[in-house]
Amino acid sequence: MENKEKQPLVQVKHLCKYFKVGRHAELKAVDDVTFDIYKGETVGLVGESGCGKSTTGRCMIRLYEPTKGEVFYDGKDITKLSKAEQKKFCQKVQMIFQNPYASLNSRMTVREIVGEGLKQHGTPKKEIEKRVQELLETVGLNKDHMSRFPHEFSGGQRQRIGIARALSVDPEFIICDEPISALDVSIQAQVINMLKDLQEQRGLTYLFVAHDLSVVKYISDRVIVMYLGMVVEEAETEELYSNPQHPYTKALLSAIPEADPDKAKANRRIPIKGEIPSPINPKACCRFAERCEYATERCFKEVPELREVCPGHKVACHLMDEK
Ligand SMILES: Nc1ncnc2c1ncn2[C@@H]1O[C@H](COP(=O)(O)OP(=O)(O)OP(=O)(O)O)[C@@H](O)[C@H]1O
Known about the structure:
- 31% of the residues lie in helices and 23% in strands.
- It contains ten helices and twelve strands.
- It has helices at residues 53-60, 83-92, 110-120, 125-138, 155-167, 185-202, 213-219, 237-242, 247-254, 261-266, and strands spanning 10-21, 25-37, 42-46, 68-73, 76-77, 93-96, 173-177, 205-210, 222-227, 230-236, 307-310, 313-315.
- The strands form two sheets. It has an eight-stranded mixed sheet, with helices on both faces.
- Helix 3 crosses helix 4 and helix 4 (125-138) crosses helix 5 (155-167).
- The longest helix is centred in the middle third of the chain and has 18 residues, at 185-202.
């Protein structure tokens, strides 16, 4: 069945998260972001550092309250859940964090870290012990190391502990917030492949937040590109990488290192001029305009709407009107 005929598992609608800075200024970390995620898929959320990826993820799990807009999970507004529904939501939706050093409590043993969620959900002690052992085996860790503390593990192993903790409550949807960017390159592929396998075995749905476009290409079914708090492009992975439309996406993709020297020669790297501007009190225009080599007068006056240019492929760029 095509995605369009199904009900999305997650719906993010006109989501805004503004942080007050000083007396009169607002930092628009996320500004009118809308997208859907369907059951069983992996959606990649990409963009340069500071474009609002993590803030979007945090709003989706209620670590941040949105300034405006809504997030629906399984058709329900996550800010309007009953106590029982809230408990279920906390179980069904989990997050894996970027920094496996900061995200694990250094005073807790692996047994306590991985078993915490199970304890909160009323699982008997004996059962917790067995489940923690199974979970450690699932993520490729030695079950005899349950009494050890996080500092006794390497970065990759700690991220595996974080993944075991997320899996412990049998989630449906996991927000993976840059899960491999703090790890050695040699370990990154192992963790990514493990996430892929777990998805297949457990029918998981992922939002995969990252700035590494090669990794996102490898793991995602669809990709959403953000720039300075807004979505500039969204498409199925193959379509996005082979037929990017937004000048920002084109520039980002042109910067991916190419292993094949012939292809590398043929691919022109598109430079992005200037620095990423401040998200504080941004002007009501295309946020990319001042760095875009194709910008016209209109781009400096009007916010482009995110519109479908062909089935499943959305772009927020005034240049699309001229095509
Ligand atoms: N709690 C906060 N208070 C004030 N500003 C914040 C807060 N959290 C994030 N920001 C700002 O919001 C913007 C978006 O940050 P966010 O972490 O969501 O971006 P990101 O794309 O995930 O970047 P990174 O890849 O570096 O984590 C940045 O300008 C950041 O400084």
